[in-house]
Design brief:
The complex is a heterodimer of chains A (216) and B (52).
Chain A (H helix, E strand, L loop, with lengths): L9 H53 L11 E6 L8 E6 L3 H4 L4 E2 L10 E6 L20 E5 L3 E13 L21 E9 L6 E14 L3
Parallel strand pairs in A: 2-3, 4-7
Antiparallel strand pairs in A: 1-2, 1-5, 3-4, 5-6, 6-8, 7-8
Chain B lengths: L1 H7 L4 H27 L13
The chains are: A alpha+beta (216), B mainly alpha (52).
Chain lengths: 216, 52
């Protein structure tokens, strides 16, 4: 097969080659940096959460008096046996980005642990140690435990749901029924859905089944 | 770009490889600890709250 006649001058061909190489190298470099950034999002961000959790859990354990947590302070220790016997996170007060980086965040307007009303929590699913990554694995009657200075509150899972990001009724004192006055203590956990997306929210509901005061 | 860098690196092939490895490590560290934490808040793949 004959090679088509090329009318480029050798200098022009060299310049062209150098330019194409530069474009290629830049693209490969950009691709590698993007991959590294994904790795950072998935695993790098968790380092901050882990260090903050150590601090928050220590703070919870050392707390002497019973009081309301200020934003950024730990509210309670969250345990979900279904997600592992060592599954343990200090829930932090507040749901702004800075709070959620530290661990699952408690909506400041919602009920406190064990209180009549709804204890509403949001947590990351893929970044910042991904505390709520496996929330979809919770089944009906699984236990969600909140431990505070005063007591150990055991909720049981009643159902889960996929909702739009603005359906705030899921956090109403009676989940889904904003006009009704609560007579029981509920818990609502939320995270993003589907995984790696901000399109919807995965929500798990529970109701208080047992309160065990802590003895000193 | 990389060919040009490689030619600029001094010494034998061995030292060139070592210097290149150090340069890569420095670049990765700067990205990981400085650039990425600044970029991260702009990525909203993991929005978890429900609000108006």
């Amino acid at each position: 097969m004959a090679i088509p006649d090329c009318h480029m001058s050798p200098e022009y061909a060299d310049r062209m080659r150098a330019m194409l190489r530069a474009v290629g190298e830049t693209s490969i470099t950009a691709g590698l940096i993007l991959m590294l950034f994904c790795a950072y999002l998935l695993w790098g961000t968790g380092a901050y959460t882990k260090s903050q959790q150590v601090r928050l859990q220590h703070e919870l354990a050392a707390r002497k008096e019973i009081r309301t947590a200020k934003p950024g302070e730990p509210v309670a220790l969250l345990r979900i046996p279904r997600l592992g016997s060592d599954y343990e996170y200090a829930v932090v007060e507040g749901v702004d980005a800075e709070h959620l980086k530290k661990g699952p965040g408690h909506y400041p307007d919602s009920a406190m642990p064990g209180q009549i009303g709804n204890f509403a929590v949001a947590g990351h699913r893929t970044t910042y140690a991904a505390p709520f990554n496996e929330l979809d694995e919770l089944e009906r009657d699984d236990e969600i435990i909140l431990e505070t200075r005063e007591a150990r509150y055991t909720y049981r899972v009643t159902s889960h749901d996929i909702v739009e990001p603005d359906e705030i009724d899921v956090f109403a004192p009676v989940p889904g029924k904003p006009d009704i006055r609560p007579i029981r203590a509920f818990i609502t956990l939320s995270t993003c859905h589907p995984e790696y997306s901000a399109a919807q929210r995965l929500v798990v509901y529970g109701v208080l089944k047992d309160t065990e005061p802590r003895k000193e | 770009m990389y060919v040009w860098l490689w030619r600029k690196l001094p010494g034998t092939t061995r030292t060139k490889v070592l210097t290149a490895a150090v340069l890569v490590a420095v670049a990765v560290a700067v990205l990981w600890y400085v650039v990425f934490p600044l970029l991260e808040p702009m990525v909203t793949l993991d929005e978890v709250t429900v609000r108006k």
